[in-house]
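Ticket reopened. Same input as before:
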Amino acid sequence: MFSKNLIKYSKSLHLKKNRFANHQFIVEGEKIVKEFIQSDNQQIFKLFAVQKFIEANLAIIKKKKIDVIEVSLTELAQISALNSPNEAVAIVKMQSHDINYNTININGALYLDNLQDPGNLGTIIRTADWFGFKEVLCSPNSVDVYNPKVIQATMGAILRVNVNYIEFLDLEANIKKTSPNFPIFGAVLNGNSIFKTNLKPGLIVIGNESQGISKHIVNHITFPITIPAQKNNGTESLNAACATAIICSEFFKHQNLI
Amino acid sequence: MFSKNLIKYSKSLHLKKNRFANHQFIVEGEKIVKEFIQSDNQQIFKLFAVQKFIEANLAIIKKKKIDVIEVSLTELAQISALNSPNEAVAIVKMQSHDINYNTININGALYLDNLQDPGNLGTIIRTADWFGFKEVLCSPNSVDVYNPKVIQATMGAILRVNVNYIEFLDLEANIKKTSPNFPIFGAVLNGNSIFKTNLKPGLIVIGNESQGISKHIVNHITFPITIPAQKNNGTESLNAACATAIICSEFFKHQNLI
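Engineering reply: fixed in the latest deploy. New output:
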């Protein structure tokens, strides 16, 4: 039943503190909810969906005995955190996955320092998946990956990319236990051209949208890299997600020799 | 005076039909409003700003005799179209700039087909400025460039990039009058690797966020290009603004031989 208590609970998950108190988060939108309910690794606490969605996904809902509540679009809007609710909202159990240092050592990883925009984080996770970066690390003061806007912007990539929060210095210390010379690339304004840098697997540090990389991290960067710009263009920086996309693309190209 | 009528008028500009009826649009945020009032090419109808902003920009406000109204942050929130209003909102007169076919012929241009997300359009304009693409063309059904979220996401690049709306077939016909063999690149899912394509100046077509490039345009693409992905990654596509950033970066690299 679509009860008042359930509406209240679902809406409470729009806030980080409630998500972490209950170890649950919400996933929205026809396409991404479908991916979540089909995934073998996700536990769905509740599924709110319009009739059309339920009919289209009846087999998997029955097979997994998902607790589904049929709602109208108006009812869906009552619990949605997005401007345009779309067919389904799922409440999903949080899971913790340890950082895979073996994967980092072999393929490299992204480190996001104080990233604040939910759309940027989600988009970066989507890009990371596209180019095969399976580990994304965030500073503890970065935006919460369980923010509904982040989940939405990943377009499902959150199911395939391992996201963890860790202080940079702790991460670096852990990596250096086995790889003392692990390269640390950092996107800065006055680094070497990324087009002229030997981009081997390493830690790729992306800074905050307006302030860039924190001071306590900058000194640890072994390869400062910059995306060259047209002279006299006037724009001071690229969007963080776009800069990350270009950087991931360049690393991918180098590592795949294409 | 911060009158009710003025609040009502300012808010009315959140809607496209009112922007075009009045030939005015709103610009928000400390940094970008500052760029607009400093620009010699912009006509400011009204400036709403907190005391701090006015003091910091008093010289230019006086020099240009800008009609400024001091407001509180709460008052600013009454007219703002953004979630977090920031120091200043300006009402600016729309200007029309013709498409510069000469620039297109020499440097190439972006064509955005049915792009819908305001953040994507703004971010693409910012990226275009970074890499020196001065002409951005949009299909008439794309999101309005004067949408406050678009202006915000350009981070000021809108002052330097010429954005126009035109049907693809009309644009193509105009270009081909002087350059019958002008290359038309299109970002598609099954094209040739962008990393292996000779990227000379041309028209670069980017499609809608979920549907890609329209059928009536696809047949006109002479160079279908694709951003390669890690095998078995699961993510079906990149965010449109990120894909455009990677494409612009590759074109920039080729044309600057770096």
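Residues 209 and 240 of chain B are 6 Å apart (CA to CA). The radius of gyration of chain B is 20 Å. Please confirm and we'll close it.
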